[in-house]
Amino acid sequence: MRRIVVPMLTLLLGLFAWSGEASAFCGFYVGKADTKLFNKASEVAIARHDNKTVITMANDFKGDVKEFAMVVPVPTVLEKEQIHVGDPAMLKHLADYSAPRLVEYFDENPCRRYDMMQDRMGAMKSMAPAAAEAKRERDQVLGVTVEAQYLVGEYDILILSAKESAGLETWLAENGYKIPAGASAVLHSYLKQNLKFFVAKVNLGEQAKLGLTHLRPLQIAFESPRFLLPIRLGTVNADGAQELFIYFLTRQGRVETTNYRTVRLPEAQEVPLYVKDKFGDFYRDLFTQQVKRESERGVFLEYAWDMNWCDPCAANPLSAEELRGLGVFWQDSVVNPQRGRSMPMAQSVFLTRLHVRYDAAHFPEDLMFQETPDRSNFQARYILRHPWTGTDECAAATAYRQQLRERYEREAQTLATLTGWNIGEIRKTMNITAVPTVEGKKWYRQLWAN
Q: Which spans in 56-115 are helix H?
């Protein structure tokens, strides 16, 4: 069986190195944009502090697990204790907690005033001595060394070093790993940096013994001053652009890219009420528009916040146990007497969520990052504002009703600008006509000026 290297993981993982506060946002959380909205989406969580890094890699492989394999460039030979199988529920919780969200307000009575708002070793041991010796000789000819091998959960793990990319490529092919044509150049660039290769495949016997029907995340830990994410290897035979969600857990503050532009998505925009029933379509199209605006070269910030609280919350904050499971080794915790569970100390874990859509043409370099001291809060949130429908009569109520039509037009134009949807269809769905006011025209011209 030819083992297919999983591009969604290969492209993700590899060469890793080991403020002002925003005012509270008041509103009712009513929906979130799940990562499953996007095709070919991969997720990685990175906990990093003082050059020490713990990476949790979600396996999005679809198909016969007998064909699963993953190759990841790493800066050093990993010991078995540095490799674990993670809990997919933790990554899901992290994704839910930081997802772009929809919130809603309700207008007050204008007549009143308020101030408030986852065994190659067994197989190798069973090999006849002569066969094993022949294999070692072949490995020497190819310049490949198996530095270490482990069984971790349902995964057979190898740590390889190599002298040159053609030998490594041949070794992988002879050992059942199907490498895409054209990978030599990328492998060569990593070998020039003296990197090793972390190789994982499913041990079917162990998987059956554990009773698992899915692939669990793999987690690796190491120390290195380099802080970057290799994505080029996985773009060699990729079928179109791919989505990558990266969750950074750091102590100091927000993480950003240094060799591509880090862009904050539009946020706090008011959109028509009917978006509540099609928020997935809305956010998917909004993100596509932003990718186009950045000429398909941007890395987008979707969330940045202290992990101990959120406002509004798309999910409860992660517990201290969950954060430790994702590699947060520096935190102190206290027991919350009301919830009866340990919680991270305030300000000790900062979460940054970046989202990038990439291909080889527009992302020719691996992603490089830096942690900043910026602890300001940010979330991609979009607002529904329900009109007041009371019958009270006063001068303020009269003025409020007259201004609603212009507000609906602004919401329609905002939706069209954010998503690229047809403005006429939006107005038709909202049952409104255009409001060609001086204020409306000025607002539309200046919407993206800043």
A: 88-98
The total of other beta-carbon atoms located within 10 Å of residue 133's CB is 11
For 373-389, give the DSSP string: S----EE-EEEEEEPP-
Is 367 in a helix, a strand, or coil? strand
CA 171 – CA 161 distance, rounded (Å):
11
Dihedral of alpha carbons 221, 222, 228, 231, sign: negative
Buried b (16+ CB within 10 A) or exposed e, 139-177: beebbbbbebbbbbbbbbbbbbbbebbebbbbbbeebeb
**Nearest-angstrom CA–CA distance, 200 and 112:** 65
CA–CA distance, 90 with 216 (Å, rounded to integer): 11
Q: pLDDT under 70 in the chain at which residues?
A: 1-30, 60-63, 113-136, 178-182, 236-238, 332-347, 434-450
- In sequence order, the 6+-apart residues with CB closer than 8 A to the CB of 41 are 35, 60, 242, 243, 244, 245
In this prediction the pTM is 0.77
CA distance 135 to 311: 59
- Amino acid at residue number 373: P
Q: Decide: helix, strand or coil at residue 1.
A: coil
Residue 167 DSSP label:
H
| Run of H or E including 150 | strand 144-152
Smallest CA-to-CA distance from 211 within 158, 152, 157, 153 is with 153
Q: Give every CB contact of residue 69 below 8 A, 6+ residues apart in sequence.
A: 3, 4, 5, 6, 176, 177, 199, 200, 201
- C-alpha span between 400 and 387 (Å, rounded): 9
CA distances from 357 to 14, 201, 246, 313 (A): 18, 26, 12, 26
Spatial distance between the Cα atoms of 82 and 86, rounded to a whole number of angstroms = 12
CB 182 within 8 A of CB 194: no
The H helix count followed by the E strand count for the chain is: 12, 24
The DSSP symbol for 40 reads T
CB 167 within 8 A of CB 83: no
Question: In the numeric block, which tokens belong to residue 290?
Answer: 């932003």
Is residue 221 within 8 Å of residue 53, measured between CB atoms?
Answer: yes
> Could you report the per-residue pLDDT of 53-95, keeping only the tens digit for each?
999 988 766 667 777 778 888 888 889 999 899 888 999 999 9
E strand or H helix that includes residue 52: strand 52-57
